[in-house]
Each structure stands twice: as C-alpha cells, then as structure tokens.
C-alpha cells in the first residue's frame, strides 16, 4: 500500500467522542488520511453538555506543533477549538512560516449545547492564512456582529468574512432548520454559489461542523481541487448524519456515523 497523506488537526478534545479531535481523527481515517493531532484544550463533554474545560498552555501547544511538524510531512491542517488568542498566536506563527499547508479554519465559538469554547480574537488571527474557513450561521453572526439567518445573509456573510483574508469562506446552514435542503453559501474568487443537498431529518448532529472541516482538509491532503473537496465533504457529512439516525449514543445530541457502518441509507436518512 502506498503511504497515506498526513492530515493534522489542531483542536480540543471532546470526551464524548462526537466532536473536536475525536471527530477529526475519525474523519481523517475514514477519508484514508493518517491523522496527527495537536490538542488545545481538554473538555469534559457528552451529548448533553460541556461541564468543564481545561485549556492547554500555549507553550504546550507550541511544543506539540514542533514535534509533529519536525517529523511528519503534513499535507493539510484543520483547526477547531483554539480557546484563546494566545494559542491562536502560536498557530498563526507557524502559518506565517508557511508550514501549515491547506489550512482549513473551523471557527469554533459555541458548542451546540451552548457552551463558549472560543473567542473572536483567536479566529481573526488565523483567517488571513486560511484556504477555507467554515463558520456556521451562528459563528458568522458572531464574527460579523449582525444576524445571519437567510440565504442572502449567508452569502453576504461569506463575502464579508473573506475580506478577513481567507481565500474561500463557506457559511454552513445546517442549523437553519425547516427546509427540505441543507444549504451552504460558498464565497470564492469574488463569487458566491450555494451548495445544496437533501436535509437529513435528524437532531443527532453533534460534531457535524468539525467533521465537515476535517473532511475538507483530508480531501485537500489527497490533492483534490478546492470546490470538489468542499462538495465531497458536504456529501460525506450527509451520509454520516444519515447513517447515525438509528443510533442511540447518549441521551442528548448524538454523534455521526463517521465510518459509514450503517447499511446504505437513502437521502431521507431511512435505512434501506
Ligand atoms: N440535517 C442535515 N442534513 C444534511 N446536511 C447537513 C445537515 N446538518 C448539517 N449539514 C451539513 O453539515 C455541514 C456542517 O454544517 P453545520 O451543521 O451548519 O455545522 P455546525 O456543526 O458547525 O453547526 C454543512 O455542509 C451542512 O450543510
Ligand atoms: C472540543 C470541541 N470542539 C468543537 C466542538 C463544536 O463542534 P461542532 O462540530 O460545531 O459540533 P456541535 O458541538 O456544534 O454539534 C465541540 N463541541 N467540542
């Protein structure tokens, strides 16, 4: 077998296994990448709540980065929960040095269970180096300090966030419930386009944003073109959501079927 590409996640640990580092490493493996990890925080978390957060000191984030980058040939990088501007500074310094290729920035600010995991100042430090940034509607609204609740507002938000330096911005619409479709607004090269897919009828979407960004990084690590990588990552998330509709893991918002273990499911999420 040929050597798989290495993808690196810089993110927080989710003890419940659904989001953060755990979702990223599962996604990398599912996409046939060898996953490396730099941990920025340890969260005590399950499908119902985040109950504790222990930030990793910036110097320890820096030494993890050095250990990975000194030895492994990293092909793409995804950032998730950074926790503080000081940690973001450590990551931005490596990005400035040009050693974080294909940088995908998931601007994690608040968990779906309502806990604050990140700060705007940290995201702003990394956006200039991102090839893609993937805020959800709530994160886009916080970063821009204005409502983002319609497709037109998502498109405008993607454009305005790209002014912060990211080459491409995808504002994800998973949390805009109600329609038949899950729609994301993608800004690239001065144009917006909407990515549409069937909406999987599920409330078990813990870690969908982490999974989406990690899948983009993995596909970029394999050399896929940017828009193809984003489209394929969106399809993968939909399949992973559909596969877990029958799962009962935890009593709250359950995780995704990263390895597509469930028998083939149709686009409505029903097992075939
Ligand atoms: N129910 C769903 N059906 C299909 N795709 C979804 C669904 N929910 C989210 N997605 C997709 O998952 C990706 C992550 O989006 P989102 O859920 O908005 O992220 P976050 O977890 O950060 O809120 C996007 O491509 C979005 O369109
Ligand atoms: C440690 C950690 N990192 C990120 C998140 C947020 O994950 P996300 O994919 O946005 O999923 P939800 O939590 O919004 O479902 C997290 N919860 N924990």
TrEMBL record:
It catalyses: 4-amino-5-hydroxymethyl-2-methylpyrimidine + ATP = 4-amino-2-methyl-5-(phosphooxymethyl)pyrimidine + ADP + H(+); 4-amino-2-methyl-5-(phosphooxymethyl)pyrimidine + ATP = 4-amino-2-methyl-5-(diphosphooxymethyl)pyrimidine + ADP. Residues 14-256 form the Pyridoxamine kinase/Phosphomethylpyrimidine kinase domain. Pathway: Cofactor biosynthesis; thiamine diphosphate biosynthesis; 4-amino-2-methyl-5-diphosphomethylpyrimidine from 5-amino-1-(5-phospho-D-ribosyl)imidazole: step 3/3. One of its GO terms (cellular component) is cytosol. Its EC number is 2.7.1.49, 2.7.4.7. The keyword Transferase applies. One of its GO terms (biological process) is thiamine biosynthetic process. GO terms for molecular function: ATP binding; hydroxymethylpyrimidine kinase activity; phosphomethylpyrimidine kinase activity. Keywords: ATP-binding, Kinase, Nucleotide-binding, Thiamine biosynthesis, Transferase. The keyword Transferase applies. Transmembrane segments: none annotated. Catalyzes the phosphorylation of hydroxymethylpyrimidine phosphate (HMP-P) to HMP-PP, and of HMP to HMP-P. NCBIfam families: HMP-P_kinase. This is Bifunctional hydroxymethylpyrimidine kinase/phosphomethylpyrimidine kinase.
């Amino acid at each position: 077998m040929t050597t798989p590409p290495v993808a690196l996640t810089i993110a927080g640990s989710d003890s419940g296994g659904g989001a953060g580092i755990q979702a990223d490493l599962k996604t990398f493996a599912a996409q046939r990448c060898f996953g490396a990890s730099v941990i920025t925080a340890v969260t005590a978390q399950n499908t119902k709540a985040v109950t504790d957060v222990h930030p990793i000191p910036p110097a320890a984030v820096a030494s993890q980065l050095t250990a990975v980058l000194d030895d492994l040939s990293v092909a793409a990088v995804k950032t998730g929960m950074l926790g503080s501007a000081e940690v973001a500074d450590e990551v931005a310094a490596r990005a400035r040095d040009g050693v974080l290729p294909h940088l995908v920035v998931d601007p994690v600010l608040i968990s779906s269970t309502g806990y604050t995991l990140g700060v705007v100042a940290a995201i702003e430090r990394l956006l200039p180096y991102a090839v893609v940034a993937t805020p959800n509607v709530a994160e886009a609204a916080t970063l821009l300090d204005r409502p983002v609740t319609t497709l037109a507002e998502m498109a405008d938000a993607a454009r305005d966030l790209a002014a912060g330096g990211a080459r491409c911005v995808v504002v994800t619409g998973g949390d805009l419930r109600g329609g038949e479709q899950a729609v994301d607004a993608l800004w690239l090269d001065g144009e917006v386009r909407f990515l549409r897919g069937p909406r999987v009828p599920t409330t078990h979407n813990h870690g969908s944003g982490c999974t989406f960004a990690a899948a983009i990084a993995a596909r970029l690590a394999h050399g896929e073109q940017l828009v193809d990588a984003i489209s394929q990552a969106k399809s993968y998330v939909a399949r992973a959501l559909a596969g877990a509709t029958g799962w009962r893991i935890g009593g709250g918002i359950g995780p995704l079927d990263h390895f597509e273990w469930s028998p083939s499911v149709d686009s409505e999420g029903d097992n075939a």
